[in-house]
Amino acid sequence: MIRFGAAISTSSGATEAAREAAAIARERLGDARVAMALVFASASYGDVCAVPRAVEPELAGAPLLGGTAAGAMFDEHGVARRGVLVALVGGDGVRATVTSAAANSPELLEAIPAAAGVLAEADAAARAGFEEALCLAFAPGVRVDGDAFVAAVRKGTAARMQLAGGLTGDDFTMDRTRVFVGGEAHADRLVLAGLFTRTRVGVAARHGLQLVGPSRRVTAADGPWMLTLDGRPAFDVWAEDARAAGGTPPADLQERKLYLANNFPLGMEVTSLLEPVVRVPMEVRGDGAARVGIVGEGARVQVMRAAAPGMLGASHAAADLARNRLGARAGGAFVFACCGRLAVLGERFGEEPRAVSRALEAPVAGVCVYGEIARAHREVDAFHNHTAVVVALPS
Hints:
The protein is an alpha+beta fold. It has 2 domains: 3-206 and 310-394, no CATH class; 210-305, no CATH class. The chain is 27% helix and 35% strand. It is built from 9 helices and 27 strands. It has helices at residues 14-29, 51-55, 111-127, 146-157, 234-244, 253-263, 308-326, 339-345, 351-360, and strands at 3-9, 34-41, 64-68, 73-75, 78-80, 84-90, 94-102, 132-140, 162-168, 179-181, 184-186, 189-197, 202-206, 210-211, 216-222, 225-229, 232-233, 266-268, 277-279, 283-284, 290-291, 300-305, 330-338, 364-369, 371-375, 383-384, 388-394. The strands form 4 sheets. Strands 14, 15, 16, 17, 18, 19, 20, 21 and 22 form a 9-stranded antiparallel beta sheet that branches. It has a 6-stranded mixed beta sheet with strand order 1-6-2-3-10-11. A hairpin with a 2-residue loop joins strand 4 (73-75) and strand 5. The termini are close together.
């Protein structure tokens, strides 16, 4: 049996909110043993770094991970722009382990041995009958490159583990992202958790954005920087294609970056996925280069439009797919949603978790992040933008 219990508190102080949410989540878990806690809090709290310690008394020694939110946290009942989310997984049908590593290098090679440690725990759990393994992975957003983080985690965990998670946020100040681990909040560490079950966990990611621009070829790239599209400055071409599709990119470079990230990101076809992988401009330069993550020379990309109908339909589709991959009744679900979806959907954002909960017929708990991680069995790419990730847990 696996049990799921979650709660959000919007109390005025982070410490108080953490204690309140943890107590309610523990009550909702019933008499089951706590295996792991996923905790997220608004970075705008002055005492946000006290959140992990405040939650610990309800965990009876169980590991904790999480971090700061990118604008909101949510469940099937609503959306909180400021608060603390505590989601607990427990029962005799699940085991968990949490580890962390420093985030010192651009390549994040430090993640490889940490991920290998999760794999070793997965192998030990499999010998005890817990044969399904999921790795939850979080790193401080803005400070790390999502593609590099995922590549390192994948190398350490090998092919058989599913992945989910994201890059933590900071309510859009872009300077105070944190991860929670070991009772502390860190700006320079990454955290991994292994969740081991007897039956499969369903992982799915969908965005619902529509291709609207012409196909362009990446003609020059330098690591995460996309330099040119069809031989011209990449960001200039990007803005032109958005304008041709009905967009109105602002004149100011930084405002244009945010506008395109939210409304007209790029899509890249990937054979193992149901939709193109979405990429957004995380940084732009005066020469027209855009930092988007790893998109190699020769790749084909197209501008996409973000609109509410397709995005909300994708949330339901992700839940349906996660449930199919679960192959059993869902007891609860984690949801990791891009902050860009919050920006586009606005007051309608709460429809996403409600749709996921209805499709799974189970409670959900989730948070907005700066980049989403999802890799189900037989999928290749794992880092996403502008996407909703659903992690359906068996009951």
